């Protein structure tokens, strides 16, 4: 078996059937990471002793018919902002260099309690504040479709670990698109959960009112199983969710369809045609009220990010990559009154969005309007870095601002994805729907 190309769900079934040894599986991934030329650009550090101990325990449980979950014994990677007891956790920043937590984050504890094996920590954008995945301070993981391009951020190494076959699944975070952008550019499924659904205790923050935890994986089934593991509960059953007949989708037109690059534009049009052919109703949807919150995003994000990190950055500004430091510092210009008023406007827009989208199964848009940029060009052209970073996160940010859950699915065109957005706490319904869409696009 080629473990590196199998989904986490398939691997889990193999363990349950006695066909796959969790110890051999974990050793395979650890050896693959060490041998792969991209390994050092993807993983910040490994946790081999922990991984092998967890795999040994999973092997015993499997032999005794006492598996803790469908993913018991499955090796996964963790973005380097999830606290890991006794292991350096730096969130891609030299501001936190050498930081060693004394306990696991709550979400890692939940996953470990259900048998997931921790392979190690993956590289990421500095303090999670970039959609590109470019990090000259530590490492910039490559895109699986273009090794000279960035992987997307900020969960860059998380996506690369799965796409390059160096983890069965990965755990990342999403504040403005940081699970979905690296997922789309690496042809993965990425789930942005509702803010507040999964614990952020022991997760290095960026903007806590928007920060969310979510999986990056190969299939919708994997996403459903990973969500359950991150929450410490029994997963939903996705069987029998193959039809799109009678489903009604709103296709957002406002802002997200502007300045699409050729490949994402073609992929989106072709994807909608396939959904129609599968029986779905496709309805163009204009929502001008989103324009205000999109303009307010600088206030909403940078004010909170600067409030969280401003003192540390001012104390050692030389430790940061300039464009990331400047993005944080932009938050210093806004007042408390600016921030409160922006949130009031956002909450009004969220209520309007909920009313206008209530009659649809999901709201659709292209996940990213662009393709992964070349790393060298981003480093050499400062203006290009700024414009690409802003447009990269533009479409995904809609989901964060409107406060719901969202998932990106591969379209079959490399580095182009379809985003489905649903109301807050509707992850189960969204996953059922995404499974049907995945089947239609297969």
Automatic annotation (TrEMBL):
UniProt-listed PROSITE patterns: AMIDASES (PS00571)
Top-rank lineage group of the source organism: Bacteria
One Pfam family named in its UniProt record: Amidase
Domain Amidase: 25-431
Name this protein carries in UniProt: Amidase family protein
């Amino acid at each position: 078996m080629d473990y590196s190309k199998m989904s986490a769900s398939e691997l889990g079934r193999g363990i349950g059937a006695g066909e796959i040894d969790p110890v051999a599986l974990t050793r395979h991934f650890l050896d693959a990471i060490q041998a792969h030329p991209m390994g050092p650009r993807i993983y910040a550090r490994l946790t081999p002793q922990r991984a092998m101990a967890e795999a040994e325990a999973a092997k015993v449980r499997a032999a005794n018919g006492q598996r803790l979950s469908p993913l018991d014994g499955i090796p996964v990677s963790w973005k380097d902002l999830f606290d890991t007891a006794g292991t350096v956790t730096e969130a891609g920043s030299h501001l936190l260099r050498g930081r060693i937590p004394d306990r696991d984050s709550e979400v890692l504890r939940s996953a470990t309690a259900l048998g997931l094996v921790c392979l190690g920590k993956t590289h990421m954008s500095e303090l999670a504040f970039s959609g590109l995945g470019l990090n000259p301070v530590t490492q910039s993981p490559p895109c699986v479709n273009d090794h000279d391009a960035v992987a997307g951020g900020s969960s860059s190494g998380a996506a690369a670990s799965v796409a390059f076959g160096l983890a069965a699944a990965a755990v990342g975070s999403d504040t403005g698109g940081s699970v979905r952008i690296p997922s789309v550019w690496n042809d993965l499924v990425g789930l942005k959960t509702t803010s507040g659904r999964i614990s952020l205790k022991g997760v290095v923050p960026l903007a806590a009112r928007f920060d969310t935890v979510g999986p990056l994986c190969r299939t919708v089934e994997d996403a459903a199983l990973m969500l359950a593991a991150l929450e410490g509960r029994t997963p939903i059953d996705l069987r029998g969710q193959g039809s799109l007949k009678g489903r009604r989708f709103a296709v957002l037109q406002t802002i997200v369809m502007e300045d699409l690059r050729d490949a994402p534009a073609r992929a989106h049009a072709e994807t909608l045609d396939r959904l129609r052919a599968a029986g779905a109703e496709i309805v163009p949807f204009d929502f001008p009220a989103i324009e205000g919150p999109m303009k307010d995003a600088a206030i909403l994000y940078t004010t909170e990010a600067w409030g969280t990190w401003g003192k540390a950055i001012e104390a050692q500004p030389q430790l940061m990559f300039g464009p990331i430091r400047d993005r944080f510092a932009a938050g210093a210009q806004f007042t408390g009154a600016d921030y409160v008023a922006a949130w009031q406007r956002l909450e009004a827009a969220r209520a309007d969005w909920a009313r206008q989208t209530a009659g649809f199964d999901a709201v659709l848009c292209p996940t990213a309007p662009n393709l992964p940029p070349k790393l060298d060009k981003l480093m050499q052209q400062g203006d290009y870095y700024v414009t690409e970073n802003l447009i990269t996160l533009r479409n995904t940010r809609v989901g964060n601002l409107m406060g719901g859950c969202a998932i990106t699915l591969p379209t079959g065109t490399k580095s182009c994805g379809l985003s489905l957005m649903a109301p807050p706490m509707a992850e189960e319904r969204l996953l059922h729907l995404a499974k049907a869409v995945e089947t239609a696009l297969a």
